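Dataset card, provenance and construction

Sequences and ligand SMILES were collected as paired inputs. For each pair, a complete structure of the chain with the small molecule in place was predicted and serialized as structure tokens. The example below shows a pair involving zinc ion. Curators did not alter the output after generation; any descriptive sentences attached to a record were derived from the structure itself.
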Amino acid sequence: MTALLRVAEPLGRDWFSIPWEIVYKTTGLTPQTLPGVRTMADHPVEKLAPRTSIEYAKQAGASAFRPFLHRVHRSHLPVIGFVPPPTVDLSLLEDDVEILRPYQLDGVRFLRERCGALLLDAQRVGKTPQVVYAHEPEYGPLVVVGPVASRTPWHEWAARRFGRCQEICSLCDRVGAKASDKPSFVSLDGRTPDLALLQLGAACYFLTYAVVDPWSEQFAAFGEIGTLVIDEAHLSLQHRKNVTAVGIKRLAACSYRRIGLSGTIMWNKPAGLFPILDIICPAAFGDYWPFCIKYAAARPSEHGWIADGVSNEGELEKRLSAIALRRTWEDVQKDLPKIIRSVEYVPLDNEAHAKVYDAANEIRKSLGERPQTVVGNLARLCKLYAETKLARAVELIRETISAGQSLVAWTWHREIASSLAEELGAVPWVFGPIHGQLPPAAREQILEEAREEPGPRVLIATMGALGTAVSLNWATQEVFLEIHWTAAIISQAEARPYDGTRPIAATYLVADSDPDRRQCDAILAKLTTADRLGLGAKAGSAADVLATVFQIARGKSLDAIAELIAAGEAL
Ligand SMILES: [Zn+2]
């Protein structure tokens, strides 16, 4: 191994030049036995997009063309028993490091040490902040390609690190973003690219898969991308040759660093990994069929070649470990707070928009009338929102279940709980809905069955029916389809699966519409402040919290009291 250390010459961050003789003597491997290892005869440069070839030619330098020296990608190193020394100085992060948890800091280090990497941490472990802080703005903007559902966290973290997206933005308000000269976050929504948006010089651009193709040409013409992120990479690259994949390849060709994110990648289907690997580390894993013959048990059949199996599993795993980082919920839980809250905005379609508009008008008209009428109308609005969130909730629940986690899905209204159960269909891992109208015996039976179920499962319940005195500690995740107006009710529901031994992740689905966003922001601000003051489920009302603030304040210094009052005011 020491021989390897002496002779391996780094060529940039991801490629190394190693005399093949030595590799052969150490491991018995020849260039032919590893897809992606290139000899001079099949040098990959001409197969890559023009900008990438220049980049790689630069990285590879002259030594790639010297006989008996081979360019070896980072992903080969574990197979040949070689660990490169770390190259990154984390002091680059300055004071930002304080808001990252220890395992997230490890993630930042891992990403910064590589030009191409996969971050495969489990869902809701917090992949977004790791990428935002691994990004080095001097190389160009952070460009994220992902599903609409992932837009909010990127916006939030870009605002935390780079300042506000624009003057008026409730989301930037919520995270306390500072003013900035250039927008921190711009979402590129239109299918017709508008060059003016790229000229804004935003720190982070977000694109959905649907618009990648037209925008990718603009980016390719515009300049270097610092970090290209393919969020939920397993969704975007399922087909090697579709338009989205072509657009992403075009973006990758002009990116300094490429990161693929996924919490639910299919390890048991190596052939499906290839398109992601080919974009993240072009040329490193060779071509599709040699890769599949080596790792996906590809074989000829009556209908041409098929590659649906697994082969040389251990070697692929070793190679992936050089470029992929994966931590499970269990791996990181000691670093996590009690409850991790995240908010996801769900877009409203036109029909829902019209209905919401009508309901809001009714509310305005009824304001002078009896309070019951107002409350009734507000509840109607809330239900309208919940209906639009159903489809996303179903998706989220299925993702969580297939990632092996159990969850509780909370609603406010009985109808919404029932609709959710219907949408999920009659599958054995769905329990409930539990709501106030259910006889106690039936309720107990459902709870018992859910507790006994050995595999990942979901329990659907209304917050009112199951808020208190029930332990649901078999679940690690929660999703809220509706947001109750009373912080205490949310906070009690939130705490049900928590048993003090491991953290809980709660996702709030919020309709991308002003009233729902405001309500969610207000409730979450209350919950966060209550957490800070250690009130937990007692976060009944602003008055309770203030009373506690003054109780705690007794015997404290004036500064401490001022801070506590400021916290109370946030309510
Ligand atoms: Zn903003």
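Derived descriptions for this record:
The CA atoms of residues 295 and 313 lie 7 Å apart.
The first strand starts at residue 9 and ends at 11.
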